[in-house]
Queue: 3 jobs
Job 1
Amino acid sequence: MTTTPPPPPSAGPTGTGPLTPTDHRAFAFLGHVNSSLRQCLCTLARHGVALRRDAPERARLLLDTVRPWPLYKGGQFLFDLMEWEDLMVDGDPPPVMSTERIVAACTLPVRLAAAATEEAPAVTKLVPGQRTTAALGLPLSLLTTTARSTLLSAAQDLTDLLGPGADPDDDAGYATDPEPVTDDTGAELPPLEAGFYLYEDIALGALSVLGPLLADHAPTDPAPPA
């Protein structure tokens, strides 16, 4: 299954096994990435189940709005292609990931998307002879700055998201929680529902948890005509 642990490490650097200590450390990191991704997806799905339960009309309108969008359809394709449902339901439910941690991990991608879709201001009074410089120099400078900032920020975000603290997954069969689970706001989160609703619940949970972050980057309304 997706969450099957890597082979046990050899006795040490001098072990006779085919895998090196570096291999085991690499597997440990990648396994932790899987665990954190599973924890995040399951948490979002639980928020989605709670939204369907507590506000069914809002949940229906949210899904009706996003279903035609390529971003939603592409997410559905990747969800099926990468078999994330198997990842989510294999083993006992992971701990709930805090809303703050999810928002922090998604802040950089949202900012980059906002910057990429922002309408560039019109260039006025361009000095003759500097069109080539303006056309090439500024974009290249922005590209270099953005790339450097993106790599540094992404590394920091990954460090924060995947840092120590996530509990390892149990390989037992999937089971619902014996006790209600609450998020960092104290709201009760029901168990996720595998099957037909799983991807929809993740989408609803993402809209619920990330809604304030997305709203903060919404384009401003154009000024009314004089």
Job 2
Amino acid sequence: MFRSSAPFESQFRWEVDRWVFRFRQRGAPVEVTRLERDRLVARHIQRTRTITRTWFAGVFAFCFLSAFAMPYVPSSWLAAGYFSTAILLGFGLRYWADQAVTLPLRRRLPVGEKLGFLGAWMMRAEVTSWPQLLLGFAAVIPASILVLTLPDAFSRVERWTGAAVVMLVGAMLMFMAALKLLIDWRERRRNAWRDDLEEARDLRVD
């Protein structure tokens, strides 16, 4: 509910000589103009602010009605209704702000092919900053310590499930960090080649 607009904006990229839109950063590219990109990003930001207010209002309304229904409805039903309302309302509004905004673009004729598995991950790594990756590692390390020190009240299945989830997230972060290092190295090489080319062009034969 409270994400920034960076993931949405990263679907728009300058590729070769034009702006293109790739749905979820990996779909087939369709050509867009800079004006269309700016308008859709502004619409996304406006809808995100609207759904934040709507989500809080919906959850508050459910809690308000639950206070009157509590003597007549089991608490387990109210808890299930609360979480169902929050999740369904959040997903529905998020679709309205994220995917519905770009629906006209996804109906256009693509100008290229979809990205493969590695290409999609490299695209995500390119738009992910190092502070975001470090924040992910900062969350995984305490989680792994918590899983390793679970009390005996938890069963073996629960322990293995928690460990598997933490290991999966950690492996994804490590893979993303490796791709980020590769992308940074590639950019440094490109900049070095560009500087060498500019220096060679400036040479004059006397």
Job 3
Amino acid sequence: MTPAVRHVNWDFAEWALDAVLPGSTAYNPDKMTGIPLEDWKPFDLTERDADDIEDDFLSYCDDLEGPLIVVNSTSFYPDQGPYFVEASNLRDFVKAFDTRVRDYFMWTDVLVVSPVTGFVVVVQDDGYIVKVRGNAIMTVQRSVGDK
């Protein structure tokens, strides 16, 4: 039997998640800490148009900054792993995902970690979403003249 292959980026992604939400052990809502049960909001993934679902999800991500760690169902394929996306490019990443990866972005659980802001956005495939603030663990250096 061949051991399961794990993408090389998982160790860093899991380290960052644990630093932002201490005690979190995996990109799985059941293994994440620091998310109050009462903060979850209904988020229908089945009865709405795919573009509307993506737009609604992206509205939760509007104030994220810097590099993001994005995990969805395809991230667990050995040749994919967690995605690293600049916050300013998240909309384009989500909207073009089905063309590049040949899977719908919001197929099942989706998790986004923003190490710069400390925000974590989690969508559960059973129809809930939450956004929590953990620890900001990095800063973004800006060049002189950048805003």
